């Protein structure tokens, strides 16, 4: 199914001399006869260690020091998406960046 597509890129030039980039893409897709709105957010950061990948949506899971984060952001995102009948997934490779994909059921209105 063809659908609306959109996307963009945000670039941040850090003082360390390398660029952090964030890509966002949205589109409508059909899976198993159902219509979905899909949003992908991709970065070119350090990636997530494979040992941590399966835990990123757990409440309070973080690899940051105690004063730098609570580990609630992704678990809250997971709950919001699931409560709306959607799905959220994460793909990452260390040193290659990360992609988060959110799929929400498309409304007919």
UniProtKB/TrEMBL annotation:
It catalyses: ATP + protein L-histidine = ADP + protein N-phospho-L-histidine. PROSITE patterns: HIS_KIN. Pfam families: HATPase_c (PF02518). GO terms for molecular function: protein histidine kinase activity. It comes from the Bacteria. InterPro entries: HATPase_C_sf, HATPase_dom, His_kinase_dom, Sig_transdc_His_kin-like_C. Residues 37-108 form the Histidine kinase domain. SUPFAM superfamilies: ATPase domain of HSP90 chaperone/DNA topoisomerase II/histidine kinase. Its EC number is 2.7.13.3. This is histidine kinase. It comes from Handelsmanbacteria sp. (strain RIFCSPLOWO2_12_FULL_64_10).
């Amino acid at each position: 199914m063809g659908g609306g597509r959109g996307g963009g890129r945000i670039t941040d030039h850090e003082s360390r001399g390398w660029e952090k980039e964030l890509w966002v893409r949205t589109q409508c897709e059909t899976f198993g006869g159902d219509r979905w709105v899909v949003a992908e957010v991709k970065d070119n950061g350090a990636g997530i260690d494979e040992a941590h990948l399966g835990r990123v949506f757990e409440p309070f899971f973080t690899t940051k020091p105690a004063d730098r984060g609570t580990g609630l952001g992704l678990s809250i995102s997971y709950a919001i998406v699931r409560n709306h009948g959607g799905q959220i997934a994460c793909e990452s490779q260390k040193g290659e960046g990360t992609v988060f994909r959110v799929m929400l059921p498309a409304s007919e209105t």
